[in-house]
Amino acid sequence: MITALRHFLVDSWLGRVIAFVVFLSFVVLGGTFFGMGGGMAGLGGDTVVQIGSHKITPVEFQKAVQRQVGYAMQQNGGAADFLKTPQGRQEVGHAALRNLILVHEGALAGERNGLNPGDETIRGVIFAMPDFRDPSGKFDPHKMDDLLRVNNLSHQDLIQETRRMLYGRATMLAFGQTVQPPAQELDWMVNHIGHGQVVDMVRLPFSLGAVSTQPTDDQLKRYYQNHLWQFRKPEYRHARIVVMTAGSVAKTIQISDADLQASYRMKMQDPAEAARYNSPELRSIEVLAVGDEATAQELAAAWQGGQSWAALQKQYPKAIPATLNDARQTDLPDPALGKTAFATQEGKVSAPVHTAAGWSVVHVLSVKPATHASFESLKDSIREDLANARAASMLKDRQRAFEEAVAGSVTLDKVPADIGAFPLEGSLDAHGNLPGGEPAPLPGDAALRQALIEQIFSQKKDEPPHVVTEPDGSSFAVMVDDVTPGTQEPYEAVQQGVKDAWLADARKHATEQRVTALFQQAKKTGLRQALAGQKEEAMLQKDEHFSNLQLRHDVPALILKAALQQKTGQTAMLQAGDAYWLVNVTGTYEESSTLMQAIRQRLAAQMTAAYRNDLQETLGMSYTRAAPPRHFNAALFNDVNDRVLSMISGRLGQQ
């Protein structure tokens, strides 16, 4: 659902009508809501904020948050890491609300200045939307209805958003179109991104350290006494738990066949979505290209007669060989070559084909037929997507039923499953581990699991359960029915474990001494010279490239930072994880001129948009002075934002 939402609300024309103002991400309020006066007097729990006479409702705000997530994911290459932190979640909500405010401020400004798009104008804009057209290019009302229903929009929603878009075009979006970024600032950014560092580095695990002597019994006993916490059996508590989350509520939601069919049609009509499920015919081929037709005819005859690929390359050394695995027809660089490759039978060699670069002969190695995802194959995943999308709003509605069920069940065995609550029980320690040492299978994200553990270890044995509600709307109740106190393991019972721990510490210390000696030498002669002839030389990684353009994920963050920030000639000794690292910057490099030019063009476009948005923010601030946002309901804002983002996080596997 999130992928569909992203494409619908960012890539499609209809989505741009509804979400056009999302591209003005940091406008009007500058990241806070401290300018809103008036408190919440006269407002109920159905208004997030008021602009003029318009009240932004929870439903309108919920849709804005969903649009903002779609846009942010598009900007982050499909990633949703910003949902993992409270700050990221708050900024999504703030940006979504700022965008809504700007839409309505633009509409008010348009009205004040006499702008009033008529019904015919709005109808013409809607009828011209490509998303509502059939294959022949004509407006299709059934297609429009399908798209609106799947995205929980009415005809009136579409008309209102189209009117606001037209107001926005007239009052906001044309402002600052001619702005250009300063050349010096652009040069600095290109230089920062387009240049990188060349690094020699070596990773030396703690386990490499050699220990020449075994510990005595006295040494082990002393180590045991100094590290008693390492050799203690933890306290275990047996608890019964009932949990209700957006994910568990989703499993109880029924989706009609009509909604499933409409969602499937929308996926198949969206090119980006359809490409995820459907695959064209794929072919693996070998190609030999020559300069003239006569040579191509000889080569084709020999190949068709059974000559091998390798033998033909020796026989025709001037022929240019190429192979493609699982290629689409559009992957082939020449249309004539593509047509021939996909017209030749599997295992056969084609006749010579004339291309823009000369003559080519194609051998088709294998063919993978085209695939098309049927409704039946996607029905279950579509049902899950739609149920998850609706669960967030239903989670709060079922809160009272959950509380009543818990209040009427002292042992938590009478909580009905049909409200979306599910039970589990077991023993675990304060770290959330089972007696065997593996993590307990607690539900939800890290925050919910930690809240469950804390409740289990703070609640008294046999204390009546009560409902605990988390910020994301998830709820749970706990009953602790057994406590096994922690005990100190006697030395005799853990002697082997004490020895293993002593040896591990000794190996780490030995490794530290060795790495320190190498570090001191590397500061004088460089890392490569310091390791020359040493046993660690085989582990040296030479001439590794690091840049801000493509951050590497195969090294710890601390090592990445050192590789990017150290000066040429500097060596650093660092500890990351279970190893010491030596990092030596040996030089710098510059990306290719073609890539540098592409970087410059992309940065220029981004900076131009940023400056344009700054100018539009100034205009937006002037609109807010004429009609300031009033009566901000912070509690309602947080409630809606948390529920929507928790649902989305669960669907994306963030929990």
TrEMBL record:
Carries keyword Membrane? yes
Which domain of life does the protein's organism represent? Bacteria
Give TM regions: 13-34
Q: Which residues form the PpiC domain?
A: 255-380
Q: Where in the cell is it found?
A: Cell inner membrane
Q: Which family does it belong to?
A: Belongs to the PpiD chaperone family.
Q: What is this protein called?
A: Parvulin-like PPIase
Q: Which organism is it from?
A: Bombella dulcis
